[in-house]
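Q: Okay, next protein. This is Iron-sulfur cluster carrier protein from Fictibacillus terranigra. I've checked the sequence twice, so it should be correct. Can you predict the 3D structure?
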Amino acid sequence: MTEEKVIELLSHIQDPFLHKSLTESGAIQEIKVKERYVSLKVALPQTGTPEQMMLQQEIVNVLKGAGFESVGLRFEQRKSGQGSKNAAPALLAPESKTEFIAIASGKGGVGKSTVSVNLAVALARLGKKVGLIDADIYGFSVPDMMGITERPKVVGETIQPVERFGVKVISMAFFVEDNAPVIWRGPMLGKMLMNFFSEVEWGDLDYVLLDLPPGTGDVALDVHKMLPKCKEIIVTTPHATAAFVAARAGTMALKTDHEIIGVIENMAFFESRLTGEKEYVFGKGGGERLSEELGIPMLGQLPLGQPDINEDDFAPSVYAADHRLGRAYEDIARKVIDQVK
């Protein structure tokens, strides 16, 4: 038994005064677990009431039903605006219906961010409510790729994500000046990533896509810890080395119990507009070999191709819905929806 398990068990119990779950209302102030014993401190708007007695009995029944032999409860009256360090942000609360999909790769330069951006846009075009987190803290690029020039607004104590093409976006790029480099160590990266969940007003979302940095470093590890039910898509090129390195990211996902829903092979070939002839610039078969090695489906093979640039609505990496690659991304988005279901 862990603190996280206790929070999950109590997430379906309502605060009798605020009519929200105990996790949403921030009622759970302290949790201590030791073998089969658990103690809790719970903050309520009113104490010493019949409602508190009923809530106390409900909590004890749930925790003992889950296997705890002894349950200690201490109630206190909450102060105005008091929250809980254990209260999960709305997106991360156990009752949240939002699906998380991390876009990962073993190495840089395979077009992972391009895939993240266009898959998010394709899902939005299919009527889904989508958020996109540029989790590549050092190599942020999503706002530039989507042609986003504005910055998030702060309303009260929360940040409003920037919306473009129907996708809500947050990125480290919004919080640095003049494309400055980010010189941080591991623990600071995890804190920033948690801020993207806890301090941003995302609203109700069907999907949150995370554009991960390449490889298996600190941010990838933090995502695996924060989002144990996150699903992953692995992006590779057809080149044998790229696929070999991408297999590491896939293996990491499997070892941390993340479900990999598919492989996308980017830059699969170049097709001449004049002759229709295909040139396999980066070789052939890398995506298929990776798919077979990990035992997961191929979601799509994307050719090399430049989006049509519209100077009036500049977004240098987003393909139009009627573009050949725009249609390919829509096909992949439909497969992703089916895989998640």
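A: Here is a summary of the prediction. The longest helix spans residues 324-340. The chain has two domains: 3-88, 91-340.
Q: Noted. On to the next one.
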